[in-house]
Amino acid sequence: MEIVIKDIASSKHWQEPLATLEEARESTDEPETRDAWWEELRQEIKSHAKALGCHAVIGYSESTSICEEVCILSAAGTAAVLSCRLLQDGCLDVLIEHRLSRQLPLFPSGSDKVEFDLGSSGSLGCEDLVPLGCGFCHIPYDELNMPFPAQLSYCYCCRRAKVPDVLFTTIDLPTEANITGKGCLIQARLCRLKKKGQGEGNATCISSLLPFMEYELHTQLLNKLKLRAMNALFGLRIQISVGENMLVGLASATAVYLSALPCPGGIQIAGKTPGDLSYEQYMCNMQRKVNDTINKNRELYQINPPEVVEELIGSPIPEPRQRSRLFRSHSESSDELSELDLSHGKKDAFVLEIDDTDAVEDIHSLLTDAPTPPGFFSCNTEVMPGINNWTSGLQMFTSVRVFRLSNANLTNQGLNKIFNELCENLLKSLYFKLRSMVPCCLCHLNFTVAVPEDELIQVAVTAVAMSFHKDQTQDSNKSGEDRAPMKVITENEEQLQFPLELSAETTPPQPLSSAKNTGPSDGSTAGLGRASSAERTSPLPEGRSRSLRSTRSFPSSSSVTVVKMTPLSFIPGAKITKYLGIINMFFIRETTSLREEGGVSGFLHSFIAEVFAMVRAHVAALGGNAVVSYSMKECVFMENPNKNQAQCLINVSGDAVIFIRETELEASSTQTQTANTQSNEDTPA
Amino acid sequence: MSVELDVFVGNTTIMDKEVYQLWLNGHTVNDAVRVRMEGGVLEECEASAEVLLSDTMDQFRTFQMCERLLHNPAKLANQLLFQIPPDRQAMLIERYYAFDDAFAREVLGKKLSKGTKKDLDDISAKTGIMLKSCRRQFDNFKRVFKVVEELKGPLVENIRQHFLLSDTLARDYAAIVFFASNRFETGKRKLQYLTFQDFAFCAGQLINNWTLGSMDNLAEDMDVDLDKEFLQGLKDLKILITDKDLLDQHKSLVCTALRGKTKVFNEMEANFKNLSRGLVNIAAKLTNTKDVRDFFIDLVEKFIEPCRADRWSPVEMALYLTHYTNSAHILDTFRYQAVWNRYMGVIKSCILRMYHD
After folding, report:
1. A409 lies within 8 A of chain B by CB
2. Does the complex come out with an ipTM higher than 0.95?
3. B80/A613 CB distance under 8 A
4. Res A9 pLDDT > 70
5. What are phi and psi of B173, to 5 degrees?
6. Hey, of A429, A443, A461, A647, which one would you mutate to test binding to chain B, going by the most B CBs within 10 A of its CB?
7. Which residues, 6+ apart, have CB-to-CB distance to A276 below 8 Å?
8. Domain boundaries, chain B
9. Element (H, E) at B357
10. Predicted confidence (pLDDT) at residue A158 exceeds the cutoff of 70
């Protein structure tokens, strides 16, 4: 059973609740077989969640990667404890407003669903009041019954519950979460060579590689997180693509500093062969670089956690470890770089042991990640935590790169380096292209990797650049207002003069209405709404009709409607007045005159431009002026330059909407409109 | 190891003015990258050469895809493929149709045909404008010429509406079209000192005063052709030089008016008859298409050169032409005042514009 979640305000996540399961399978053509595999995978996810003491998996997604007859099925989500407390009487009327406005931002793409395991729902604990800003970080276990070892400390916000030192989650950051400074995009990238194989053997080979890749990606993420002086990841997506002779893994997430979690310790580099003077010197240099980077990042992302928390609250439990940590972070920020034993003897000291050349490479790659240029922020979640005052400047884009590895004798390291550079260069290109929009944030920056052929790596990105006002970026009070546009004003049946008479009696339940219980779908509300509309068949209220007209008749001189597109669920500074339905389009293009069309780049460039144009035209034809939750789900490109041919398949989807600028709305709206939140059943995954 | 494919497509098409200009100037991608690097864009944005190359490639591709739309600018506003904000569209069009005066000067008055197109190599070498850019500019001239050739109504307005150009640019194009269809001679050595803008100014004067459309807005014919009736009427002006009394009278009137007001009075007095003959003869010959072509060379040879030899200043020139024109009105036996005014108005402003080193 899939239920769109209503509220997770007090739900709990756990450090590493993320259960990513991957299975390499020999693909078969029978859909039943695949269904069975997925079923198995979901069961596994559920049991993992149960083992962690959680009864729900949120931010859940599934993906596949296919190469020849092998298929990797992946499922990932965040195990959580959902509290029903906020829905209970008493609290309800207080919190209902929060709920309405929070609902969409939490589950933007519509692909995030919750799987409830009803069996364990009895254990739902309705404990005492949990603060909104930090409640979701609190661990749901007592210290002695931890499902796995973790370092705990008292919550830095409320001082009452315990929190882990690091949090990895697949969900977007809850809007009410207390964060310090700004967030940033973090990527872990990894390539692993494998032998060409066939059938079962190949699948086994891949299966044996997967856990190591998962582990390494995880380590990279953790290192990079520490390097940015942050302590939590949101929107984590791990993608592992399989090719004939290699596996490519890419993990993206948005790192933030959660105020509730302890300040992350630095990274300490330890060498294996002490005594060698030049080696020690080298290590010392490395350590200094790492420390410099951390300090620089702290400045860049404005991470200045209040260190006086203890005095202010009067910490209830004096804990020696805690005090020493604070002290340590203090000494770190000072310039005593010679002190190598920054976190000596402490459990949370993060030691990177350099035991071979690989490790040296790893450290180098850590440090070579270019910082985002000034004026830019990037994240793979809907919006950047800490930035609220968006302007209407919006630029959605798709970028595709294919890299050819001409060198046949590549090592894993060489491959890693190339892949790393590919991603870094792509990011740099994006920043450069969009430099006219600064200050701006690249939101929903989602990479998709594929290995279409032996020596090809393909990376595709679709994201949106949104510019924001430079001042008052920290104005968190504004967030409530800014979220408001995400509320959807549904055009109810009551507003139509001629309701659909036939729909109630004759139409059988829509086959698609699995979302029946989640919210009003078009089919079911037609019948329900009619009863009330029959009683008061009032014509359109004056203001309403005016506002609608103003969006539909476009004042621009040209006959072409401007259609905005965004991968997000909202348009800043605008109100979505109507959802017009799902856009889900498949396009296939073929050419037998590749050279004449400007080569592969020319071919794909015009194709993607055409896809955009067709989506816009389709939306305009429906009377809409924007596409939200847009995504390019598939981009399969194949070429045969010798034959002068190429093929490409693209699948895109999104929601067609009518939006109205808030400035226009203010002019015409004095009437109160029932903000009927339409949950995103419009956008099933 | 190489980037096999690299594209970036925005929902709103991203275009950099600077890159667009490099493209229009006919640079190759690599040239453009080099120019941009020298321009310091790298330091500004912490980008690498690779990034710049990728960006330039993308934009060049976009421009290439837009080019066929730019051939009919009205289409640009109504196409669906690229979402381009109106101000950007205007920029694209304006710059695409912008041309180098040096280039325009070379082809001015030439037939916009394949023959001329073959000479573009030479023009490119001479002006230092890249061949690609020359081709674009030449094709633009030809395209505009072809479209407005068939249209009725005012020339400048037609160009502006059809190609969505700014007023200044539309006027320049009108001049080019006007010169091309009347095949004015501009290539002679004696005319080399004149710039495109000089000619464009003169063309504007001619279009506004001597064409059929200039007198009658509802005229069936176009602005491109000179008013035949008017040209015919110019023959009557001959009386100013053939009638000895009239010529003497005219001279004495002008001399009286100018005495003491100009340093070159003596030269002027001595040359009056020659100069007057020159101007009136030009008028009388304009019925002949071949002589129309020589209009500018005649003006230079018959009037500007003698004056320059006598070192008239532009102010003196203006003074002389004003009195020369006005004095004719006082001549009691001279009946062709309207034609005279229409003729001399243009001649005066043209000569004043052309009278420089």
Report:
1. no
2. no
3. yes
4. no
5. -65, -40
6. A429
7. none
8. 17-96, 98-223, 229-354
9. none
10. yes
